[in-house]
Amino acid sequence: MIEFKNVSLQLGGRGILRNVSFRVEKGQSVLLAGNSGVGKSTILKLILGLIKPTEGSIRVLGQEISHLPEKRLLQIRQQCGMVFQEGALFDSLTIEENVGFFLRENKKFTAEQVFHKVVEILEYLGLEQYLHYYPSQLSGGMKKRVAIARAIIANPSILLYDEPTAGLDPISANRVVELIDDLRTRMSVTSVIVSHEIHYFLDVVDRMILLKEGTIFYDGVPQLNLFANANPSKAKYKINNGERLYGII
Question: Around 3, how many Cα atoms within 13 Å sit in the side-chain half-sphere?
């Protein structure tokens, strides 16, 4: 489904990734973790073909994408849903218009078909009453769920999440995590989640890939204490509802 082989990336003379190799199977959920600036979000851009690797091979949905022309890359991207860190919603559009944007641009569906699809997804997310609201009228957690609604409306094979819990309170963050887990089961979708908030995802991912200084430090079963091993000066314990969780600062 997604495969990196010996991928390295240099931007502006700076090494971002060095000899990164991993494979994500169909239906698998993988957490990309690590400190800021280690290349987590860059890997999502590479999967979408938004940037090209300096060295190595990247295969997505069975195709080597490193040298594909933009027209072919667009076909790959249409099978991927992307949830951006800040949501990236259009402030001037209503929630209905934001969620249905891709289908309307695609021009393969009537306005009525798009509307019914949008309502169906928003009902699933518990946001149907906000159909005619604007993003500025919603809480951070609601905006994140709207961003997820927009990402799934075209039934993608792959969902990419860039810091989906960033800036959310624990209740909103847990609700987003539960949604991510439910979508994987409901849609049989392959999920790649970038986050430094490891504790939210321990029970909902199959694997954790921990990056350190542009290389893979660990690839295996999610473990709470690994970030401290990779970045001992950047981790601390914190108490959340009486449970000791690993927080990253």
Answer: 10
Q: Which pLDDT band holds residue 176 (cuts at 50, 70, 90)? A: very high
Give the span between the Cα atoms of 36 and 178, in whole angstroms.
24
Q: How far apart are CA 72 and CA 61, in angstroms?
A: 12
Q: Give the range of the structural domain holding residue 28, as residue numbers without chain letter.
A: 2-248
Q: Is 58's pLDDT higher than 90?
A: yes
At residue 10, what are phi and psi to the nearest 5 degrees? -120, 135
Give the Å distances, CA to CA, from 94 to 39, 91, 113, 133, 143. 33, 8, 17, 5, 12
**Any idea what the CATH number is for the domain that residue 145 is in?**
3.40.50.300
Distance (Å) of CA 56 to CA 8, 73, 88, 181, 236: 6, 17, 30, 31, 36
Q: What confidence category does residue 190 fall into, taking pLDDT thresholds of 50, 70 and 90? A: very high
User: What single-letter amino acid sits at 145?
Assistant: R
Calpha distance 242→85 (Å, rounded): 28
> Does 120 have pLDDT greater than 70?
yes
Q: Is 80 exceeded by the pLDDT of residue 66? A: yes
Domains in the chain, number? 1
Res. 231: pLDDT tops 70: no
Q: Looking at residue 245, what is its pLDDT?
A: 34
- Of 166, 129, 146, whose CA–CA distance to 93 is shortest? 146
